[in-house]
Amino acid sequence: MDAIAEANVPAIVDFGSDSCIPCKQMAPVLKKSNEEMRGRAIVKFVDVWKYTDAADGFPVQVIPTQVLMMPGGDPYEPSEELAAKYGLWFSQYTDNSGNLVFTTHQGALNQEQMDAILADMGV
Questions:
Q1: Which domain of life is it from (predicted)?
Q2: Taking the CA atoms of the chain, what radius of gyration do you get in angstroms?
Q3: Of 17, 20, 53, 67, which residue is the least packed, with the fewest Cβ within 10 Å?
């Protein structure tokens, strides 16, 4: 994950599984976004059943879960307009000092939602 933070572009890391039905439904969205955003954003899929320690240190409770990061690895802060327009619910996690550490979305995203999130991230 350090390489993603060092890439200095926004990143969406989707923690899921090749055998999870919502994950399978989201696979074409991830593939298209990865291809279209190459060089401007990172869109990465990680199979947590194959790579069981891949989600260590991340607040992944269900799959699919997307961890959303700004350039440099800072957590993404979604606009209120985005959440309201698309009915998206984001979870934000803070450390003991109240600093935002992670922003996640649980569940599958469709292409329109993915594109809107990437646009909100500045891509």
A1: Bacteria
A2: 13
A3: 53
CB 75 within 8 A of CB 68: yes
Domain with residue 97: its CATH number is: 3.40.30.10
pLDDT per residue as tens digits for the range 3-34: 777 789 999 999 999 999 999 999 999 999 99
Q: How many domains does the chain have?
A: 1
Sorted by sequence, the CB contacts under 8 Å of residue 22 that are 6+ apart come out as 16, 63, 64, 107, 108
Its pTM stands at 0.94
SS3 letters across the chain: CHHHHHCCCCEEEEEECCCCHHHHHHHHHHHHHHHHHCCCCEEEEEECCCCCCCCCCCCCCCCCEEEEECHHHCECCCCHHHHHHHCCCEEEEECCCCCEEEEEEECCCCHHHHHHHHHHCCC
Give the strand pairing for 100-106 and 11-16. Answer: unpaired
Token code pair at residue 44: 């990465």
Domain interval for residue 104: 2-120
